[in-house]
Recover the amino acids of this structure.
């Protein structure tokens, strides 16, 4: 069996991807096919003895779609023009309404567009303005036809029926006007064609950009590793592309460079930052015999390592594979409108044909029968149905965006309303993710505190150790540091402006034989997970610093808010259990899962979901990317890596103590309004279709396509006004 992943063009909704997947799986030689709407791709496993890729592409074409070749991680250039095109058609839609209905509401038109004095010109201009929308909405029309042929009618099918019916009716009326029958000037419904297409495109535009995010995420993952590496050959060193590295090659890595491939150190030692995989905030000391991962940053020393896992076998490639698999998992989100359309479309067609047949049968005439048929199809056009979800979503998304909460997919707000478990990564999410001074003790009054801190910062600036960054905020560049020395395993020694200083741990104090009366302070700091730094000069202990990754301000309040909402909070981290448990206890989280790798994080998320949890995952690092993709909602916090943001569904642009709670509450409000909108849309159709079909002709109640179009606009207005309630902020 072989497997190929093809890029698919022409899919616009879940019915499209579902129909294509069903069709492919029916074909002889296809073992399994999975179509991903978000990735716009089809993964097909096939028997190469029976069929090949050209055959699969033919099957895709038969199903009404197009294969555009092997799957590419790059974004379509056409996607970048979506916004500009939509703006142009927004202006055109306003122009169409002005030309077609300006006279009805008293807005003056140019004399040559007066429908009574120049009916032929009015007809031709209206048709000309309609044509661009037919081109713009051709994907909708073709999709509607294709889905009828494959017996999977969807929203596009209903839109197509209404648009084509209104267009045919309008063109026929235009012909009559050109022949001199000016009475048909009032039977033009070109504006119905244009506005129906525009409203549907509005809904599509809201979701369009999100479909490329997972592809961008995979590209970002690949870019973690460097493009080139330095290989050692004999006594020389040369630069080679990463693709040319083979297992067994001896590579070197200088301070500040990234590890090119997974390997084992054979010479040297250094602090290596592997937080993108492990989640550990402190770079780990790697010595001879230790393993290193591709993409890890060498922060301090020179090392030589032997390549062990290259290309698709590397840890980064494994994460790429996991992200793709997680993104391909289909969430059980109810597509109410599409489900209804499976029955609604054929029902509307049957009603329209019955109305036509009955009116012919009872002698009402062909004109009345055709008018009734068109009116049923026009009145059934699902403008309100199409707006019910996207309009509510876009208003809620706009409101959240003002609070720095960016929602990337329309279904996320629906999912947010169901969240009962929030899983937090520790490093960079619950904590700042950088080393900071958590607590300090100043034991001398001989040197002002600010002067002492700036002196320590000047010495630490010479060091490449991660702890040095904790003092960077106190740098003032006023100190001259000489005789700098690293005391391996203990700390630093230097002269500053002629005075000798030591920045060391407690063990070096004992080694120097200095009486340490501050052991109790050291014990307290160490118990809180701090790294210890003493400042000494002239045999006197000047200060004691506790250095660690500290908890974000306001996170404790956020956890309490979620717990008050009866939402379970879980910490999931690659950090050690002792540190994780201490931080969890301080901020109020009861469930802690520590010492986990990226794949384990994803497995734990899946396990929680299997046990009834509807999970949101909040993370910030590359190591969280797979779990973010697996969660029902992935949330990347402020300061997250690009890959975490790409894999997530929600991005917090700035940290807010009530951000996640606000997202969940907004989701609940949005889902409630969407259900109300769908009710209004359905009740409108339930009431108007029978009237359009002529059920009340006996009591002289009948509507024509113009009234049907007006009723359709009113139903959309009702949905719009209801959705606008979401713009009111949650207090």
């Amino acid at each position: 069996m072989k497997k190929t992943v093809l890029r698919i063009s022409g899919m616009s909704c879940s019915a499209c991807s579902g129909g294509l997947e069903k069709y492919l799986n029916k074909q002889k030689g296809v073992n399994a096919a999975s179509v991903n709407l978000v990735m716009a791709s089809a993964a097909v496993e096939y028997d190469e003895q029976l069929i090949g890729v050209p055959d699969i592409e033919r099957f895709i074409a038969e199903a009404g779609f197009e294969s555009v070749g092997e799957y590419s991680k790059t974004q379509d250039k056409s996607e970048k023009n979506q916004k500009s095109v939509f703006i142009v058609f927004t202006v055109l839609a306003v122009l169409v309404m002005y030309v077609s209905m300006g006279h009805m509401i008293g807005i003056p038109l140019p004399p040559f567009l007066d429908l009574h004095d120049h009916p032929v010109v009015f007809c031709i201009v209206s048709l000309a303005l309609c044509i661009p929308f037919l081109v713009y909405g051709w994907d909708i029309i073709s999709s509607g036809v294709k889905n009828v042929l494959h017996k999977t009618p969807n929203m596009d099918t209903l839109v197509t029926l209404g648009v084509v019916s209104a267009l045919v009716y309008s063109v026929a009326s235009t012909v009559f006007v050109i022949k001199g029958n000016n009475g048909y000037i009032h039977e033009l419904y070109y504006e119905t064609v244009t506005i129906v297409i525009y409203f549907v495109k509005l809904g599509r535009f809201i979701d369009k950009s999100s479909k490329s995010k997972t592809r961008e995420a995979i590209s970002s993952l690949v870019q973690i590793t460097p493009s080139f590496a330095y290989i050692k050959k004999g006594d020389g060193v040369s630069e080679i592309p990463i693709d040319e590295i083979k297992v067994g090659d001896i590579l070197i890595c200088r301070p500040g460079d990234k590890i090119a491939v997974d390997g084992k150190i054979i010479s040297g030692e250094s602090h290596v930052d592997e937080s993108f995989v492990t989640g550990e905030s402190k770079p780990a000391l790697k010595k001879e015999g230790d393993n290193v991962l591709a993409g890890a940053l060498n922060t301090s020393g020179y090392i030589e390592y032997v390549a062990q896992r290259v290309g698709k076998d590397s840890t980064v490639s494994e994460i790429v594979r996991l992200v793709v698999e997680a993104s391909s998992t289909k969430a059980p989100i109810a597509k109410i409108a599409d489900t209804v359309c499976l029955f609604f479309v054929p029902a509307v067609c049957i009603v329209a044909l019955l109305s036509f047949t009955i009116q012919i049968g009872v002698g009402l005439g062909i004109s009345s029968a055709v008018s009734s048929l068109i009116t049923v199809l026009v009145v059934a056009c699902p403008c309100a149905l199409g707006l019910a979800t996207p309009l509510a979503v876009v208003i809620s998304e706009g409101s959240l965006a003002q609070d720095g909460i960016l929602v990337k997919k329309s279904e996320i707000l629906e999912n947010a309303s169901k969240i009962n478990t929030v899983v937090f990564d520790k490093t960079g999410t619950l904590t700042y993710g950088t080393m900071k001074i958590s607590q300090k003790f100043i034991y001398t009054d001989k040197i002002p505190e600010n002067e002492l801190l700036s002196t320590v910062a000047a010495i630490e600036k010479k060091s490449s150790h991660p702890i040095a960054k904790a003092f960077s905020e106190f740098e003032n560049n006023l100190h001259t540091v000489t005789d700098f020395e690293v005391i391996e395993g203990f700390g630093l020694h230097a002269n500053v402006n002629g005075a000798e200083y030591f920045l060391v741990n407690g063990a070096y104090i004992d080694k120097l034989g200095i009486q340490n009366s501050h052991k109790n302070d050291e014990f307290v700091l160490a118990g809180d997970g701090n790294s210890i730094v003493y400042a000494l000069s002239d045999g006197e202990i000047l200060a004691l610093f506790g250095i660690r990754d500290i908890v974000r301000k306001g996170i404790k309040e956020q956890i309490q808010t979620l717990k008050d909402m009866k939402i379970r909070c879980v910490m999931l981290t690659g950090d050690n259990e002792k540190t994780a448990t201490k931080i969890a206890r301080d901020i109020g989280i009861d469930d802690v899962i520590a010492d986990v790798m990226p794949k384990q994080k994803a497995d734990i998320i899946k396990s929680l979901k299997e046990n009834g949890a509807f999970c949101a995952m909040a993370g910030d690092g590359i190591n969280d990317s797979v779990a973010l993709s697996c969660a029902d909602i992935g949330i990347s916090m402020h300061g997250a890596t690009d890959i975490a943001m790409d894999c997530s569904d929600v991005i917090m642009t700035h940290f807010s103590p009530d951000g996640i709670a606000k997202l969940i509450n907004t989701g609940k409000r949005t889902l409630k309004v969407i259900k109300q909108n769908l009710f209004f849309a359905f009740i409108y159709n339930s009431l108007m279709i029978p009237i359009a079909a002529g059920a009340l002709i006996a009591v002289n109640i009948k509507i024509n396509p113009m009234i049907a179009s007006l009723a359709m606009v009113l139903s959309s207005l009702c949905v719009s006004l209801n959705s606008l309630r979401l713009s009111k902020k949650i207090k």
In short: Residues 490 and 508 are 6 Å apart (CA to CA).
